[in-house]
Amino acid sequence: MTEYHQQSATEVMKILNVTTQGLNDDDAQRRQQIYGYNVLEEGKKTSTWAVFIGQFKDLLVIILLVAAFVSFLLGEVESTIVIMIVVILNAILGTVQHVKAEQSLDNLKALTSPIAKVMRNNQLIELPSEEIVVGDLLVLEAGDYINADGRLIESHNLHINESSLTGESIAVAKSTEPIHHSNITIADKKNMVYSGSFVTNGRGLVLVTAIGMQTEIGKIAHLLDTAKEKKTPLQMNLDQFGEKLALGITLICLAIFTIDLFRGRALVESFMFAVSLAVAAIPEALSSIVTIVLAFGTQKMAKENAIIRKLYAVESLGSVSVICSDKTGTLTENKMVVQEVFVDQKKIPYDWLNPTNTVEKELMVKALLCSDAVERDQKEIGDPTEIALVKLGKQYGLDEIQIRAQYPRQAEVPFDSERKLMSTVNQMDKQSIMITKGALDVLLSKVTKMKTSTGIFEMTAQHRQKIEAVNRDFSRNGLRVLAIAYKEVAPQQIINNSAERDLIFIGLIAMMDPPRKESKAAVASCIDAGIKPVMITGDHKITATAIAQQIGILQDPAEAIEGHALEALTDRELQEKVQDYTVYARVTPAQKIRIVKAWQDKGHVVAMTGDGVNDGPALKQADIGVAMGVTGTEVAKDASSMILIDDNFSTIVKAIANGRSIYTNIKNAILFLLSGNAGAIFVVLYATVLGLPVPFAPVHLLFINLLTDSLPAIAIGLEPNNKKTMKDKPRNIHTPLLNKAFTTQVVLEGILIAISTIIAFQIGLSTGDTLTASTMAFTTLCLSRLVHGFNSRSKESIFAIGVFSNKYTWLAFLIGVLSLHAVLLMPMLTTVFEVAPLTTAQLALIYSLSVLPFLVNQWYKLLFVRSRS
Ligand code: ATP
């Protein structure tokens, strides 16, 4: 059978029954029914049932199951039932949390699913790539990921990186010519493109020949890394910590068990005591709380226009100390509007042009021909710089589509931020005219003549100086300048960038891209938060400096440096001087990576924005790679750990504030869990050392640790952002969460809880009834931990942050208190939970004792934690 690569493009189109207008809706729908969706089958997801079963693999749960079994053997059926119920409830809670967290992460993934540009009904539309069908015409541009296999129909300097299939990292030049050999490798099929590869350069039109599992990558899909998201450093740390702690505690419990037996205590009692201690100490909810808080946090961030692609980014965000940001579209609005034009030797405001002057008209027409953007029904598609040109033309009755149809394009060298130029060849009145537009500093050296209304003449040094002076003038006002030049070329001449020389200059078009309203405040907030904002742009130094000054990034123009000056610095020199520069102009994407590295070598955590295909390496090098959601290429998005839906700088600053809060909230939730556990351990140890009766039955600790403790912990994790978060300096990424200060706090807060509980226990013992004593100890421990939930909300006093500002903590508290009282008061539960009835006086005492740790904690915070305002 002849393969697609052996046939001509027209033959393949005929076979697949497609015209250059693309499929129509009916046809596309019919084909969808035949071929299905363009998706790769993913490895089987863990079912909810499997997640539920997975909950029983936990060390703590295993200990409990053993305890339940032993109780059963000893005839204590009631204990067995209670333990089993609590264990099952805990497993259900764990499963719900797990599934919820997975769902919210899946939702995030759906937000970033790839989009394809497709010709349908003779119109260019954007489509989720899963809706591509065989026979669709895909339009490819630099930075696009290819999501189906296909035969090239058109190729303009199209280069594709196929490393995911072939391992070859150098981009392959593609062409449309048929290749007559059969049985050749993928790498040799130069007229085919493959799913999983991406466009590094140029443009192309592709006829889809295979989708989903039929694509080459689909055939090897089982080799793809479908591994789930890796755990974040914090999660891994906590897992390790949890494991060590569990092991240590199990050993201690064994030791205490042996000592007890040795002392002559009954086997059952000693066993239950050891189990109690294990249950009290193992922080069961630790890792799952982190997952939940991270998952909720990312959802909140998505609502605020920042999509987290890699969970670890949430943690590192709080440590970001430098933001390297693009200018265009991120700090500015990316809504370019032409302000002034330099043509025919004079500067003319945009609304004073005269279309009857041939050169003035020619400047506008050539600018339209050397652009791809279109504006139809007030909808703009394409590069904002070019949209400004289209709008200028419209003002003078020049319609871009009409003009492009009148002077058809024969060839092109697409815009590339490396060269800062773009060229096309158009057929104009039987001549082939090459038009080049781009940055003046690049273009001027390629110009030899200039055109005015009096004719074409050699460009003198004086002319050059004048043009440069005008350019400087425009730039000083923050305008972006495009120069336009042209020359006649031989018909059908294949052009590449080496043809961009001996050009005839026509004029300059200067456009305004105002700073975003929010930029100034966001920059100020960054500086306040100890974060250095740095502008990196492909634009002219003077333009960049003007904008940077307007938004407060730069004070002294000496803080701006240009790409070529940067090139002259060695890595060492750059590292030494990097703190002196806040604006980098005329920078190529390759230089961005040097800037990131220089900051990182200085010990900083760097967030870097990017949109182009060449930004990938810098985005990967940065600690937080931030891709643009609107103007960003798929390649940039793929390399990033966060995507800005609105391309807005202030969204990064908000994300950092969220990142800081989420980290603090997780830390506080952990503090809450560990200090509560510590309290319980201290009481148990106290009783052991003094040879007192067991203060808690295992069910008591089960009830607290597995049921009433999780909700307040989650509620603490959901604490709203504190306005003062952005007054702190960035957190040192190398400081471990569980450091000395943190551990000391855990112990001190644990001691406070333990003191209250021990007092209640001793008073209970003085009644002579051990059941009353343990009931009082249990109730005080449970209640004081619930009240302690309010302490753990912040390092500041609850009165400084607002008593009711986190409603979840109140909800968790109320549910906890109600459950506790149900256990104490409902006759059915009192026996099951081994509690004795308490007198009102005893209850009142317990309430007061439970508030004691809270009061001491708040008193300390009010007096010693200085509130920053
Ligand atoms: P950043 O987004 O990083 O702030 P930028 O978008 O301003 O940078 P580029 O898009 O690389 O940077 O543009 C650099 C220069 O290239 C511009 O100053 C302009 O002169 C020229 N330029 C921009 N867009 C085009 C285009 N579509 N065609 C030709 N030249 C262009």
Summarize the structure in words.
- With 869 residues, the protein is α+β, with helices and mostly antiparallel strands.
- The chain has 5 domains: 4-42 and 108-224, Distorted Sandwich (Calcium-transporting ATPase, cytoplasmic transduction domain A); 48-101; 233-305 and 655-726 and 735-864, Calcium-transporting ATPase, transmembrane domain, CATH 1.20.1110.10; 313-333 and 516-647, HAD superfamily/HAD-like (Rossmann fold, 3-Layer(aba) Sandwich), CATH 3.40.50; 337-512, Calcium-transporting ATPase, cytoplasmic domain N.
- It is 49% helix and 17% strand.
- It contains 32 helices and 26 strands.
- The strands form 4 sheets. Strands 10, 11, 14, 15, 16, 17, 18, 19 and 20 form a 9-stranded mixed β-sheet that branches.
- The longest helix is centred in the last third of the chain and has 42 residues, at 649-690.
- The radius of gyration is 34 Å and the shape is elongated.
- 48% of the residues are buried.
- It binds adenosine-5'-triphosphate.
- Adenosine-5'-triphosphate binds next to helix 13, strand 16 and strand 19.
Round the mean pLDDT to the nearest integer and report it.
88
CATH architect. name of the largest domain? Up-down Bundle
**Domain module count:** 5
**Number of H/I helices:** 32
Separation of termini? 77 Å
Computed structural class:
alpha+beta
Measured by DSSP, the beta-strand proportion falls in 15-25%
> What is the helical fraction, as a range of percent?
40-55%
CATH superfamily of the largest domain: Calcium-transporting ATPase, transmembrane domain
Bound molecules: adenosine-5'-triphosphate
The CATH class of the largest domain: Mainly Alpha
Radius of gyration: 34 Å
What name is given to the CATH topology of the largest domain?
Answer: Calcium-transporting ATPase, transmembrane domain
Judging from the principal axes of the Cα atoms, what is the shape?
A: elongated
Task: Tally the beta strands.
Answer: 26
In the predicted model, the low-confidence regions spanning at least 5 consecutive residues are: 223-228
Largest sheet: 9 strands, mixed
